[in-house]
Backbone:
C-alpha cells in the first residue's frame, strides 16, 4: 500500500467519522408548569460541500404522540446508545388524541386535569445561534385550547439539529372533538422559525 | 502500518464501496419505496372512531439512508429492541440538503430519505402513495402514484418512505413528467396518501444549498 493510498483512506475514515459521530447530543434545561414539561436536545449536523446561504434557522417537522412520553433521543447518545449514529428514537406518531374517553390515561381535558400528548418540534440551525425558546399553541378554529411558552430552555449553535419536546399537555375544557392545529414558534437567538401540524381530537 | 490496521482500512473501504454500489443499483430501478402498516393504539384506549373520516400525516426529511428505518422498538423490535415499546427509530430530521450530493443531473444515487406517517380514523381501502418535490412550479422529483401491497384498515398507522435524488436522471420522475435540475433554495415536499377513494396531502419544506 502506497503512502498516498494510506493517506487517502485515513482521511476518508476521519471525514466519515466526523460526519457520523458529530457532537454528542446535549439535553438542556427542563421547565415544569402544571404538569407540562419542556426540554431541548441538540446534536451537530454536517452538510457536505454546503455553504451557509439559507435562512438562519430552518424549520423541521412537528411530530406528535399521545402515549409514550419519552424525549427524542439522538443515537448513539444515552439512553439510545444501542442505535446507529444518525438515528432518532421517538414515540409513535399518533395524531388522534382522545378527550373525555373512558380508558386509562386517555383524557386530555382540563376538567379532570389529566395530561396527555407530546409534541416534538425539530429545527435545524444554519447560522443561527443563541438561547432557545419556544411557544406552543393549539387552536381549534380561532379558539385557543392550549398555549405554553417555555422561556429560555437552552442554547444552540450554528449547524445543529434541535428538538424541542413538550409533554404533559393539558387541553382547555373548551376543547371539542375535531381538528386542532398545533403551531410551534421556536426562537434561536434573534432568529425565529415556525412549524405547524394537525391533530384530531376524538371523544 | 500493521496488518491489523491494513485489514481494518481495507474492510472499511470495502463496506463503503458496497454501500455506494447498492444505492446506485436501487436508483436505477426507479422509485424505491417501502410501506408498512402497524396497528395504531390511538383507537384502542378509549377513543371511539367517531370523528369525521380523517387522517393526519407528518413528514420527516432525512439525509441519512438506512434500510432498517423506520424500525418499531421494544421487545422483539426490529433493530431497536432496547428502546422503549411504543417508540420508533427513524433518521434524524435534516432540513438542509446539499446540492453537491443531492442532484440527480450527473448521478441518480439517492442522497436522502423522506418518510411519511399517516393514521386513518375511518378511512379504509387500498393504499397508494406519491412523493413530489417542487421548487416553485418546477418538479425536481416525482414518483407518480404508486400502489402499495397493503390494504388500510381504520385506525392503523401507515409508514412509508422513499430514497430520493433530485433532477432529470432516470428514475426520478415518471414518464409523463419532466423533472428539471434542482437549484439552491427551498423545495416543497408534497406527500400524498390515497386510502380507498380519499386522498390526503401533507407538505414539508427543505432547503437545498
Residues:
Amino acid at each position: 500500500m502506497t503512502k498516498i493510498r494510506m493517506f487517502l483512506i485515513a482521511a476518508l475514515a476521519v471525514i466519515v467519522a466526523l460526519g457520523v459521530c458529530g457532537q454528542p447530543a446535549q439535553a438542556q434545561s427542563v421547565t415544569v408548569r402544571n404538569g407540562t414539561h419542556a426540554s431541548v436536545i441538540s446534536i451537530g449536523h454536517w452538510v457536505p460541500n454546503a455553504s451557509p446561504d439559507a435562512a438562519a434557522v430552518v424549520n423541521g417537522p412537528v411530530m406528535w404522540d399521545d402515549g409514550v412520553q419519552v424525549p427524542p433521543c439522538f443515537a448513539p447518545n444515552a439512553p439510545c446508545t444501542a442505535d446507529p449514529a444518525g438515528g432518532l428514537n421517538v414515540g409513535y406518531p399518533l395524531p388522534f388524541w382522545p378527550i373525555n374517553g373512558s380508558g386509562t390515561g386517555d383524557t386530555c381535558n382540563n376538567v379532570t386535569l389529566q395530561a396527555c400528548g407530546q409534541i416534538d418540534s425539530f429545527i435545524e440551525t444554519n447560522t443561527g445561534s443563541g438561547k432557545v425558546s419556544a411557544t406552543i399553541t393549539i387552536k381549534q378554529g380561532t379558539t385557543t385550547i392550549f398555549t405554553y411558552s417555555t422561556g429560555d430552555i437552552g442554547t444552540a449553535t450554528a449547524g445543529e439539529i434541535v428538538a424541542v419536546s413538550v409533554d404533559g399537555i393539558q387541553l382547555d375544557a373548551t376543547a371539542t372533538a375535531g381538528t386542532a392545529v398545533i403551531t410551534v414558534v421556536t426562537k434561536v437567538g434573534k432568529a425565529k422559525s415556525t412549524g405547524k401540524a394537525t391533530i384530531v381530537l376524538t371523544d | 502500518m500493521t496488518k491489523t490496521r491494513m485489514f481494518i482500512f481495507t474492510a472499511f473501504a470495502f463496506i463503503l464501496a458496497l454501500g455506494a454500489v447498492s444505492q446506485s443499483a436501487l436508483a436505477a430501478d426507479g422509485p424505491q419505496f417501502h410501506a408498512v402498516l402497524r396497528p395504531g393504539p390511538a383507537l384502542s384506549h378509549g377513543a371511539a372512531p367517531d370523528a369525521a373520516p380523517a387522517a393526519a400525516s407528518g413528514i420527516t426529511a432525512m439525509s441519512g439512508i438506512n434500510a432498517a428505518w423506520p424500525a418499531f422498538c421494544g421487545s422483539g423490535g426490529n433493530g431497536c429492541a432496547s428502546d422503549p415499546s411504543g417508540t420508533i427509530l427513524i433518521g434524524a430530521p435534516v432540513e438542509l440538503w446539499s446540492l453537491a450530493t443531492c442532484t440527480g443531473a450527473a448521478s441518480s444515487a439517492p442522497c436522502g430519505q423522506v418518510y411519511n406517517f399517516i393514521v386513518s380514523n375511518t378511512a379504509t381501502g387500498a393504499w397508494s402513495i406519491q412523493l413530489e418535490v417542487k421548487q416553485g412550479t418546477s418538479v425536481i422529483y416525482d414518483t407518480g402514484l404508486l400502489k402499495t401491497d397493503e390494504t388500510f384498515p381504520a385506525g392503523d398507522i401507515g409508514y412509508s418512505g422513499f430514497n430520493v435524488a433530485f433532477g432529470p436522471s432516470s428514475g426520478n420522475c415518471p414518464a409523463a413528467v419532466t423533472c428539471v435540475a434542482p437549484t439552491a433554495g427551498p423545495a416543497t415536499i408534497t406527500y400524498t396518501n390515497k386510502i380507498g377513494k380519499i386522498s390526503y396531502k401533507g407538505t414539508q419544506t427543505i432547503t437545498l444549498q
